[in-house]
Amino acid sequence: xxxxxxxxxxxxxxxxxxxxxxxxxxxxxxxxxxxxxxxxxxxxxxxxxxxxxxxxxxxxxxxxxxxxxxxxxxxxxxxxxxxxxxxxxxxxxxxxxxxxxxxxxxxxxxxxxxxxxxxxxxxxxxxxxxxxxxxxxxxxxxxxxxxxxxxxxxxxxxxxxxxxxxxxxxxxxxxxxxxxxxxxxxxxxxxxxxxxxxxxxxxxxxxxxxxxxxxxxxxxxx
Length: 222
Ligand SMILES: C[S@@+](CC[C@H](N)C(=O)[O-])C[C@H]1O[C@@H](n2cnc3c(N)ncnc32)[C@H](O)[C@@H]1O
Prior knowledge:
Elements: H1 12-21, H2 32-43, E1 50-56, H3 62-67, E2 71-78, H4 81-90, E3 97-101, E4 121-127, H5 135-148, E5 149-161, H6 185-193, E6 198-208, E7 211-220
Parallel strand pairs: 1-2, 1-4, 2-3, 4-5
Antiparallel strand pairs: 5-7, 6-7
The chain binds S-adenosylmethionine.
The site of S-adenosylmethionine has 22 residues, from helix 3.
């Protein structure tokens, strides 16, 4: 489980190695905790369909499958080519999905995104990715997510938390902080909550199978 915010973002090579040594490293396709958390995550989506949606850090595509019924087109991405290959194989029955290797924040801009993703985007989902980013990269990712969304579009976040003290309990290290600090989902979500161009719509902390996670839905200000 992640716990400390890396001073530099973890590399795509690291995740490739992880996926090649164990195909579903977090057990997302079969663990009851993961399955129930994904169902809870998808249940936070507002009603109606999304014309154009983007998932960041899709892993092997477990949450992707639950997002798919809500989207006309969903681009599922991950920095690890090994993960993307698995996600694609796990979703062959869903032709309105496309897959791409994409690393945030570097490749998260209109120029780098595949042209099939109609921009501006209606929905961006990021589940269990934020704490692998350095504070500076997390800030930039949040800024680029907001910039890609159409006014009124949504961002849905889901991240593990290791305590129950609440979303305001953890300090987010300042950009470029010299000492890594403990940051979990609350800290990641706080970076998005602190943005003036994103409005919190709904959020909750879930507890299942001895683990806790934070879900937050934000809307891009018009
Ligand atoms: C813990 S897994 C989560 C997978 C899936 N989203 C889920 O909720 O089960 C973290 C994923 O984030 C991806 N990831 C980490 N850093 C990334 C980055 N900078 N850009 C894109 N993906 C990244 C990893 O390759 C990995 O697949």
